[in-house]
What we know:
The complex is a heterodimer. By secondary structure, chain A is of the alpha/beta class. Helices cover about 25% and strands about 30% of the residues of chain A. Chain A is built from 6 helices and 15 strands. Chain A has a 9-stranded mixed sheet with strand order 11-10-9-12-8-1-6-7-13, sandwiched between helices. A two-stranded antiparallel sheet of chain A has the order 2-5. In chain A, a hairpin with a 2-residue loop joins strand 9 and strand 10. In chain A, helix 2 packs across helix 5 and helix 3 crosses helix 4. The longest helix of chain A is centred in the N-terminal third of the chain and has 18 residues. Chain A is globular and about 65 Å long. By secondary structure, chain B is of the alpha/beta class. Chain B is built from 9 helices and 17 strands. In chain B, the strands form 4 sheets. Chain B has a 7-stranded parallel sheet, with helices on both faces. A 5-stranded parallel sheet of chain B has the order 14-13-15-16-17. The longest helix of chain B is centred in the C-terminal third of the chain and has 18 residues. Chain B is elongated and about 60 Å long. The interface between A and B is large, with 81 and 95 residues. Strand 11 of chain A pairs antiparallel with strand 12 of chain B, so a sheet runs across the interface. Flavin-adenine dinucleotide binds next to helix 6, helix 7, strand 16 and helix 9 of chain B.
Amino acid sequence: MKILVCISKAPDTTAKISFTDSDTKFSETGVQFIINPYDEWYALVRGLELKEANGGTVTTISVGAADYDPIIRKALAIGADDAVRIDTQPTDAFQVASEIANYAKDKGYDMVLCGKETINYNGSQVGGMIAELMNLPYVSLAVKLEVNGGTATIERDMQGGTEVVEISGAFVLSASKGMAEQRIPNMRGIMQARTKPLTVVPASGSLAMTEIVSYELPPAKSACKMVDAENMDELISLLHNEAKVI
Amino acid sequence: MSVLVFADSNNGAIAKSAVEAIHYGSKIGETTVITYGNVDDSALASLGNYGASKVLINKSINEFDGQKLSKLIRAAAESAEVIVFAMDFSGKSLASRVAAGLNAGLVSGALGLPDTSNGFVVRKAVFSGKAFANCKINSDKKVIALMPNSIQVETNDASASVEEFNADLGSSAVTVKEFKAKGGGGVLLTEADVIVSAGRGLKGPENWGMIEELATEMGAATACSRPVADIGWRPHHEHVGQTGIAVRPNLYIAVGISGAIQHLAGVNGSKVMVVINTDAEAPFFKAADYGVVGDAFDVVPKFIEKLKAFKAQQ
Ligand SMILES: Cc1cc2nc3c(=O)[nH]c(=O)nc-3n(C[C@H](O)[C@H](O)[C@H](O)COP(=O)(O)OP(=O)(O)OC[C@H]3O[C@@H](n4cnc5c(N)ncnc54)[C@H](O)[C@@H]3O)c2cc1C
Ligand SMILES: Nc1ncnc2c1ncn2[C@@H]1O[C@H](COP(=O)(O)O)[C@@H](O)[C@H]1O
């Protein structure tokens, strides 16, 4: 089984968000970067579990510059066999997806696993775009993935419940909570990661379709109005008359 | 500008988020709706009330099949400049695929109408609601996935024309085996105007009765923090936050939740937040609009009692 897992880099979930260059760039000063949680906890770990059960390889792929290498090494430490980095600084999801699709299209992967979304751009775009560009089926927001011979059974979140689908042949999926449990890399994994192959390939020159022209921070929140625990009438009156939500 | 809006249906009714997308589309230009399955013509014609001029329906697709639906939408989008989806479960599955197929840029999670004073710029939340980005689409065709509950829907008395629409949908490699509806009925978290959410402060799953009662009284959906879903006190699909579901209700009531940054990331789009917590220093109070320092086991039953009295008066 040949599994490709798309790994992106994201600011730590507790990072302070601020911008520079007249609010056109995310300020990386003092920010720790991590593997995007959906990519790591769910897509990568489920890929590794499938490989352990069925044999095969897990390759990670990232579209990014050399600043990606530390998080790619972490993915290798968790257990990926090898990694590919497409060497460019992408500016939108279409560009990322085109680069991944161009790289992967003739390599015979059985599945391409993405995260549900990046926690920095919250796009939920890359997986569906890869699927379209590679002409493969796409299952979004998957919470369960089982493989039996050449058939995959996938459960995905939909409005009001989950849908169970079956696919024979290659597919692209985006992974949501429930697919797998987080794995902490051990010492042996960390040592091995240093010598596992990380191949840097040049970009194919795909272009972006969108650009972020500026960022804004939300306006400062006005102070919280405190209501006495004995005075729930006041809370109800505030919610009715002031906030107008009940 | 000519606009195409994809509308998903639930049990024969057009989804609430889709109605918002239709209204949003009609503010941009002449709006055609594409839908599928089994929705009766009068319900389709009434989408004119929200601004649709024409509704196209494909009756050969009867279940959610992303490959066929994306082909259908692309065929219907031939003459459209702007294609709009709701950023709900089906929009997350289809918008990206359709955009790539049309060689078009996509802004997902749009919060408002495009600003066309200098190009075509759409505002969206980024960094899990901790900031906003103004995102410019540079392709000829433009795709937008609208965040649910971010625009006000107004209605009129117009009616839309309804036509069947067929296209070459090819075959699909995906077979839908089964749909497992979430138990419990009640209000869907992603559609709720009011959400009552509780955390580890509730001490155990046996104490959720009062949360459910409050939710029922308010016509609300129930939600929970991540550890609560992880320990199995509540089902995973109730988990809100950075790694769970992001919600944007009008009112979010948080009971016994500390307000960790990862929790706030999924709820900070709420219009009004009420926090009930024993600890006056809980970080959630910094993000809340109204706060009550007190024991949930004491405050929530009192709140329910007063709410019942208030409703009886209305
Ligand atoms: C990468 C990452 C992603 C994460 N993603 C999410 C996410 O998506 N969603 C999420 O929720 N968390 C997430 N977390 C976890 C998050 O950091 C917090 O640990 C979690 O939100 C805490 O849940 P809690 O508030 O229920 O519990 P606690 O932090 O234990 O807080 C319980 C609160 O209840 C109060 N309390 C106790 N007794 C009572 C009482 N009788 N009445 C009233 N109040 C009482 C306490 O004062 C306290 O404030 C994530 C963490 C990481 C590292
Ligand atoms: N630069 C990137 N390199 C590799 N994979 C990526 C990159 N950006 C996004 N992805 C993948 O696409 C998923 C969805 O991203 P997005 O569409 O940006 O929300 C992520 O969870 C990753 O799996």
